[in-house]
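Please, why this fold?
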Amino acid sequence: MRSRLFALVDCNSFYASCEKVFAPEWEGRPVVILSNNDGCVVALTKEAKGLGIKRGVPYFKIKNLLENNGGKAFSSNYALYGDISGRVMTLLAGLAPEIEIYSIDECFLDLTGIEEYPESYGFRIKRDVWQWTRIPVSVGIGPTKTLAKAANRRAKARGEGVTCLDSPEAARGLLEETPVEEVWGIGPRYAAKLRRRGVETAYSLSTLPDRWIRENLGGIAGLRVARELRGESCLELEDIAPKKEIVCSRSFGTPVTKKREMEEAVATYAARAAEKLRSQKSLASLVTVFFYTDRFRKEEPQYGNTATSSLMEPTDATGTLIRTALALTGRIFRGGYSYKKCGVLLSGVIPAGERPLSLFPLPEAGKERDVSSLLDHINEKWGRDTLVYAAQGVSSQKWPMKRQMLSPRYTTVWDEILTVRI
């Protein structure tokens, strides 16, 4: 039987690729994706990188450069990106016995036992994902997750699409070319320490004595990295652990000064957090609300505050969480300030299956859960926010973040589905 074999599938320029799925006219042209309120560049294509644009640069600084070179900026369309990510991951789940979703655009596959030659299978993965989603991916294959990660980096850098480390010689050749700071699990501090010792490459790291690694690179964690580089599989695929805290917050598109506007924002973020809580089948027992002004506006009065409340019973019910969050808002809100940001944090999170029994259960708890389930069902079928609580506001919201270059939510909102003329 073949030894362990892993693949890391990474979507290329994922956010920009999602936009180009429905706007293919931007293929081969510089495209950037902007952060909340269209502030900074958070993702970009290789063509945009070729213009000297870097991730994190404020949009206003590169706006003219981008437009003068026939480029395009998009506001972050999280609904679109999340839905396409789900489609990619669902497809990958059918191509391997076991997968681990590492991030919105990365996924590890366990290819152990697959009879087809690994490199050929890597190209099959790449071809199938492109055929069914039109998202380009790079595939790195190796006997450990760390080597698969390194192989993926080469596949992406060289434009080959697939790199397979199918022999010790192939792995060593790659590690000798890989700077030590690019090793998965080696941060800047450890990389600096290694360079002071004269360790420049991933291969040199793999040859260090185990004792030195344990004493200088974080003990067992550092030793695990070195052994993975040597081809010894130490990291298994993991299920995504439920989050112990769930936070939902955004900077406002325009400053909030009125209590009613703040309440709408807090209610909306409480509802979003409740959705996330239910999606991971958890309950929360603590609710925290926070908001603050813009500390960079020195000429304006400054204020910020946080308030926390415990719940009588752990819950995932949107109505209960909104009411608690609004009560906290009323406790700490102060007029006369221009608020920049607010958020809701749910903590004390436990699995829903561990709901504690109560001698005096709240009579309305069951109804609240039923309403929340109905909300999820309707909004999943007809699109987010088809049905919301009145406390979230309706059409008069002035506080949502600015997204002036937002593309349609082609796959999640009926009214924005692409129209095809035949």
